[in-house]
Fold:
Amino acid sequence: MKLSTLLLSSAALVVAGTAYAADLPAKKGAPAAKTGCPAFGAGFFQVPGSDTCLGIGGFVRSNNSWTVSTVSRGTAPYSLDGAAYLYFDAKNNTDIGTVSSYIAFYGDSSSLAVDESFLQAAGLTAGYKGRVINSVSVGGAFSSAGMLNSTTSPMIDYSMALGGSTLSVGLESANNLGNGSDASRPDITAHLSTKAGSANIDLIGISHEAAGATSGSVNAYVVGGKVGIETGGAKFAAMGAYSRGYAFMVSNGGTYDDTDATSSTSSQGSVVGASVSVPVGGNTVSAAAMQYNVSDEDGTQEKWTSYRVNYKAVIAKGLFARPEYQISTGDTSSQTVFLRIQRDF
Structure:
């Protein structure tokens, strides 16, 4: 059979089949699969074949710094590094409300680890999550120049609504940074979040056991608060915290621990600070100041003030560069320039 004859015969069969199909009853098409989960906000999509809504996101960044102040010979004044963050947030609507599970990974040139991993259901949160102390942080107060606040901890807590406020109470793995031995019990935490006009207010309280490295044990604590106001795109915040025998007061020169813990000699510290963030066109200028006052269990004291200012320049959607200058004065002095280039997704 010639090729031309074969092609003509095939075309005739296709035309005949199409005409026959046109005479058949119309069949209703299947509805389009749902791809959005509006109840959980933008970025969530429905996992095919399930009722789970999944959100995926994160960032890739370049973290760089240069120490302007004098450093000792043999110590590099610069640091060039990269980092990445990836999270998965799975949510379901159930008879007890929304059930969520969240996991996030953070990695840089030195390590790759789970940054957060927790579940939430009916007011209960359990797993590995940011510490309660982070709730009163301003301007990266408890992180290294705001490069990343990754102070996380195993915890379990319960949140309840109190009028227009939210109260969370729970247990948190004891913060033993700077302490010579582990506490025999977890920290007991409380966090009250409320509003007063245009102000958002956070109050925290932490009960901690300060276990001495060689002997002694004392019930320690932290109390703190933060007020934040946003108006016209500008953000203002102020905070204050005081600790007794709790190791969140870690200085640039060393940790303040409790060798022989007693109620009269346990370490203590206070911090006050404020921050402001102002939009400039599509970019943002931010500044923060923190003043620290800490003392060891033997009475050794150190005071210093940290100032920082940065400019977040948006290059494209989800892509920005942020140069930052930080200076510390007082008993601990340093000057450092940071540059972060980050792409969010």
